[in-house]
Amino acid sequence: MFTQKQKTIVYRVLMAIYLVALGPNYTFGYATQDNPTNRFFLIANLLSIVALILAAVWIDRPKLFKVVFVMMVIVAILAVVQLVFPGQSAYARYSNAWAIINIIWAVLTVLYQKQQLQMKKHA
Fold first, then answer.
1. Total domain count for the chain?
2. What is the pLDDT along the chain (123 residues), one digit of tens a residue?
3. What pTM value is reported for the model?
4. What single-letter DSSP state applies at residue 91?
5. CATH number of the domain that 113 lies in?
6. Which helix (H) or strand (E) is 23 found in, with range?
């Protein structure tokens, strides 16, 4: 139904959407106030992670090693920034937990991509 190239393009678009949703969230901090805009960005992050997981399963093995590497490093940096400068409301604890989850996800993705590269070199 879809070629591998089309699946790869979908995955790249989803990664870009994730970073766009993540960037304003962690740069300005959705946890500073409880309002609809801040909740929207939190929901966008949750949905984008689900979409990325589904896309990774759908593609089977995305061949985006360098692109994924760079994007995951950006995600990890933004998550660390959010940990250092958390929000000051009741959402702060969710903000910190979310930042930790993003760091773990970034590290696991990078390790998975490295493993895939090594397997490809030995094949």
1. 1
2. 778 788 777 777 776 666 665 554 554 455 555 566 666 665 666 666 666 666 666 776 555 556 665 665 666 566 566 556 555 555 566 666 667 777 777 777 777 777 777 777 776
3. 0.39
4. T
5. 1.20.1260
6. helix 4-24
